[in-house]
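Sequence and structure are no longer studied apart. As an example, we show below a sequence and the tokens encoding its fold:
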Amino acid sequence: MKAASAALLSAVLGLLIKRHNPEGALLLGAICAVGILAASLGILDGFASLRKLLRQIFGGEGESLIAPILKCLAISVVSRFSSESCRDASQNAAASAVEFAGAVCSLGVVMPLLMSILKSMGGLG
């Protein structure tokens, strides 16, 4: 509710400012988005307990299982935030390029995990 309220307030203020100062409206939206993202980082504490549990179950391999997933999540958040910021600035081509780059980076990060899973499956047969 707090994030939605902050975003709504930012949107209304941005509409008021946009007529006279479009750059200021864009900056206000970006600052609001960064503030909401920073405030939501506390939710990630659950991943720390998941990481600890995987380490207990799988030993050293637990880290190699969860790390690519967390990296993909971070890439997704950053690329989504960046592409939406580009769209707000009417830079649709740049937004599409950021989304594509995010997808390629996510694939690159998760590829070793996929290869490991495929090798394990091949060894079972």
